[in-house]
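To whoever picks this up:

The nightly regression suite flagged sn-1-specific diacylglycerol lipase ABHD11 as changed. Nothing in the input moved, so I suspect the structure step. Input below, exactly as stored in the fixture:
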Amino acid sequence: MHDATTKNWENCGLFCSPPVQLAYDSIDASSYGEDLPPLVILHGLFGSKTNWRTLGKHLHRETGRKIVTVDARNHGESEHSPEMNYFVQALDVSCLFQELELSKAVVMGHSMGGKTAMTLALSYPECVHSLIVVDMSPTKLTLDDDILQYLAAKRDMNLAFVNNKQDAERMLMNAVPNSFLRSFFLTNLVKSESGFKWRINLEGIESNISEVSGFPTQFPHQQFDGRTLFIGGGKSDYIQYKELPSIKNLFPRASIKFIPDSGHWPHAEKPMEFAQIVTDFLDNHLQD
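Regenerated output under the current build:
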């Protein structure tokens, strides 16, 4: 770890454990994007880097930038850990920057990944050129009851009776009636030599659910002065325009855009509209 990362890790005190190794996929910059800051994408709770594969390829074609999609700790192919607050997640990402020799990047995070991205910007601003937060707000400090229900449903599934994903889908149908969410959650069910298993660390996530639902109140830096865009789903209540004054206390250059007729996953529900907003934001940064 470089000096700034080491110092901030030590300053975390009881809040931080050592970083874990994060899995990632990357697409190298095109010739016309080599001089532009890369785009690093952080997924949400129960997600993985694969959720952003198609959109990442599209943004690469549109902007030429290097694209890096990352698995959070306890998710995807990244290492598991019993600790999962936002300071350690931001530390993980800052160490990945060192591994990839990234000086500064545009960081985009959805939901939990949005909170990690905000924490990164307020803890390691030297890593963040600009910030995109998708359907999340620093003022969102509660977790929907549905999330706890989904966790319990996954934990209580008897995987010994799962022979294929259709079996798993039937088992989840009552707890997760939304077919989109069922399919999303089942991306975490993988085949092993002994049968099916969850690749996410259910125990680690559940024991840290209060940390995941909250957001830190103190940071090494009081504000992030880079350009910041919040993208909200028009039908979601995770972020509201009336929160902009509170958001600007931390991110004074923040703006908000909403995508009509989309919920908490605007990038999946309205991918072309979402991609255009992100591309416009990235193109506007050419003047920075």
